[in-house]
Amino acid sequence: MSQKAEKIVVPVDFGEQSMIALEQACHLAKMTSAEITLVYVLEGTSLLGRILSSQQDEEIRKEINDKLSELADNVEKTHGVKCDKVVAHGSVYDKVAEVAEMINATFIVMGTNGAENLRKRFIGSNALRVVRESKVPVITIKGKHHRDGCKNIVVPLDLTKETREKVNKAIEMAKLYNADIRVVSVLFSTDEFIVNRLTRQLSQVKSFIEKAHVRCTAEIIKGIKGDESLGQIIVDYANKVEGDLIMIMTQQETDITELFIGSAATEIIHKSDIPVLSIVPSPKNEYVDFKPY
Question: What are phi and psi of 93, to 5 degrees?
Answer without folding.
Answer: -65, -35
